Amino acid sequence: MNEPQVESYPRWREALRLFHLAGFKFGDVVTHKWFSEALKLESISDSKLVRIAEFQKRQFFYAEALERIRNHLLREHQIYLENEFGVGYRLVPPAEQTIAVMQKGMRNIAKEIEKMAAGVTCIQVDALDDRQRAENAEARAKVSMLGGMARNRLPKPFED
């Protein structure tokens, strides 16, 4: 007699169990389709009409579940998943993990510094008093310094 399959709850834990059973190796790309099926998400095809609210709910669920899976794999199994846009997630080999994480982080930092720079430079200076102008000048100097640090790129490891 077949025993019923016991599934983990929440669904991301079940998807995590299936991930381990699938035997993915470093360098493999796990597709969005695979994750969607493992999370038991209803497939959205071109021929099926879906309400915007339903689509958004599905996308939010998928994004949250993937973030939990990625965090669990990183912290508990030292497996870093890198987004392959439009395809899925690649299991980054340990030898590439440091540079991949640093490059992603530096891109994110650079974007935020650009936003800060716009915020402190695109200001109506005439509306500021002397103290506020001094604060703004100090903020501009700090943002400029941060921008210089963000532009410094890490060398690739083991490059001759």
Walk me through what this model shows:
This protein has 160 residues and is mostly helical. It folds into 2 domains: 1-92, Orthogonal Bundle (Arc Repressor Mutant, subunit A); 94-160. It has 5 helices and 3 strands, in the order αβααββαα. A 3-stranded antiparallel sheet has the order 1-3-2. The radius of gyration is 23 Å and the shape is elongated.
Please report the number of helical segments.
Answer: 5
Strand order of the largest sheet: 1-3-2
The percent range for helix content is: 55-70%
Judging by the overall fold, what is the CATH architecture of the largest domain?
Orthogonal Bundle
Regarding CATH, which class of the largest domain?
Mainly Alpha
Structural class: mainly alpha
Number of structurally distinct domains: 2
Rg, Cα atoms, Å: 23 Å
How far the N terminus sits from the C terminus, by CA atoms, comes to 62 Å
Low-pLDDT parts are none
Strand content bin: 5-15%
Inertia-based shape:
elongated
Give me the strand/helix succession.
HEHHEEHH
Average per-residue pLDDT, rounded, comes to 89
Taking the sheet with the most strands, its summary is: 3 strands, antiparallel
Number of strands: 3
CATH topology call of the largest domain: Arc Repressor Mutant, subunit A
